[in-house]
Amino acid sequence: MPAPYAESPGRWRFLSSQDGKAEMSWSPTPDMANPFGSVHGGIIATVIDESCGAALMPMIETPSAPTVSLNVEYLHPVPIGGTYTVVSEIVRKGRAMAIADSRILNEEGTMLVRGTCFFQIPRPK
C-alpha cells in the first residue's frame, strides 16, 4: 500500500496491513519539529490516522473511509531522529462505522503516543 506523503523527508514504510491490523516504521526528520525540538503533534496525528486507515482498508469494499473523529494522547515527546514502530488495530467494525486504536512505540517498546480513529464506511455503489 503506498503511503501518503511518502516522498516527504520524514518517511514511513508500511510493514504489514492485513486482518484488521497494520504496522509501519516511521523516521521523522528535523523539518517535522515543533519549537521544542520534538515531533509536532499535527504530524503525529497524521501518522496515527494513516496507520489506522491502513488497518481498515483491507476489510472494506470501498477505496476509502473518511475519518470522522480522531483522538490522540501524547504520553511522551517523540524525539526527532529516532525510528518508531506504529501499530494499529481495528477494535470494532460495523456496516457504517469502524473504530481503530493505534500506538507509536520507540525502539525500546515504550508507548509514546496512542490514538483512536472513528471512520465512516461508505456504502458500496
Number of domains: 1
Give the DSSP E fraction (strand runs of 2 or more residues).
Answer: 35-45%
Determine the mean pLDDT. 91
CATH topology: Thiol Ester Dehydrase, Chain A
Largest sheet: 6 strands, antiparallel
- Which residues sit in consecutive blocks of at least 5 with pLDDT less than 50? none
The secondary-structure element order is: EEHEEEE
The CATH architecture term is Roll
Number of helices: 1
Compose a concise summary of this entry.
The protein is mainly β and 125 residues long.
Keywords:
Thiol Ester Dehydrase, Chain A; mainly beta; 6-stranded antiparallel β-sheet; 125 residues; 6 strands
How would you describe this protein?
By secondary structure, the chain is mainly beta. The chain has a single domain (12-120), classed as Hotdog Thioesterase (Thiol Ester Dehydrase, Chain A, Roll). It has one helix and six strands. The chain has one helix at residues 41-56; strands spanning 12-18, 21-26, 67-74, 84-93, 97-105, 111-120. Strands 1-2-4-5-6-3 form a six-stranded antiparallel β-sheet, with helices on one face. The mean pLDDT is 91.
